[in-house]
C-alpha cells in the first residue's frame, strides 16, 4: 500500500452550499502594483464570488490542504481548494485523487497507460499508478484559497 506524505482527511472535504449571494463591488480599472492611483470612482458593477469561482454547484467541493507536498504551486498547509468533480482531468492539471482509500492533491501526468502523480515540492518522489491500482480522480482543482497570514 502506498502511503501519501500528507493526505486529505474526509472531514476536510465539504460540498459547496450556496445559500446566500455575496455581492462585492468590482472596479472597472486595474489596481496599480506600482505607483498608487485613485480607483474609488470607478466601481461599475458588483460581482458574486460564486459566479467567479463555481461553474457547477452540485459537483464542487471545498477541500482543506494538509502538508507541504504542493508548496511549489503555492498550495500550503491550511489552504482551501475549490475542486470540481465534474471536470475531466487533463495533462498537468492539479487534482484531488483517491489512492487506496486516501485523498491527496497532486499534479497529474499521463505516460501511455500509466498515470504519474507529482508533488511540486522536490523533496517528494512521484507516485506511479498502474492499471489495476485502486485509484480514481476525485476532481480538478479550479481555485486555491490561501489561508490568511
UniProtKB/TrEMBL annotation:
It comes from the Bacteria. Pfam families: Peptidase_S24 (PF00717). One of its GO terms (molecular function) is hydrolase activity. InterPro entries: LexA-like, LexA/Signal_pep-like_sf, LexA_repressor, Peptidase_S24_LexA, Peptidase_S24_S26A/B/C. This is Peptidase S24. It comes from Larkinella punicea. One of its GO terms (biological process) is regulation of DNA-templated transcription. Belongs to the peptidase S24 family. SUPFAM superfamilies: LexA/Signal peptidase. The keyword Glycosyltransferase does not apply. Residues 25-141 form the Peptidase S24/S26A/S26B/S26C domain. Keywords: Autocatalytic cleavage, DNA damage, DNA repair, Hydrolase, SOS response. PANTHER family: LEXA REPRESSOR (PTHR33516), LEXA REPRESSOR-RELATED (PTHR33516:SF2). Coiled coil: none annotated.
Amino acid at each position: 500500500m502506498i502511503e501519501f506524505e500528507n493526505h486529505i482527511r474526509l472531514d476536510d472535504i465539504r460540498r459547496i452550499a450556496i445559500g446566500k449571494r455575496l455581492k462585492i463591488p468590482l472596479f472597472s480599472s486595474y489596481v496599480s502594483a506600482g505607483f498608487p492611483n485613485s480607483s474609488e470612482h470607478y466601481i461599475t458593477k458588483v460581482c458574486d464570488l460564486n459566479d467567479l469561482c463555481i461553474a457547477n454547484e452540485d459537483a464542487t467541493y471545498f477541500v482543506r490542504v494538509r502538508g507541504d507536498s504542493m508548496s511549489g504551486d503555492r498550495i500550503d498547509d491550511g489552504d482551501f481548494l475549490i475542486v470540481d468533480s465534474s471536470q475531466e482531468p487533463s495533462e498537468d492539471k492539479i487534482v484531488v485523487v483517491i489512492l487506496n482509500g486516501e485523498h491527496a492533491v497532486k499534479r497529474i501526468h499521463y505516460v501511455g497507460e500509466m498515470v504519474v502523480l507529482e508533488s511540486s515540492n522536490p523533496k517528494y518522489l512521484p507516485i506511479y499508478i498502474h492499471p489495476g491500482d485502486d485509484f480514481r480522480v476525485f476532481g480538478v482543482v479550479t481555485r486555491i484559497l490561501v489561508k490568511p497570514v
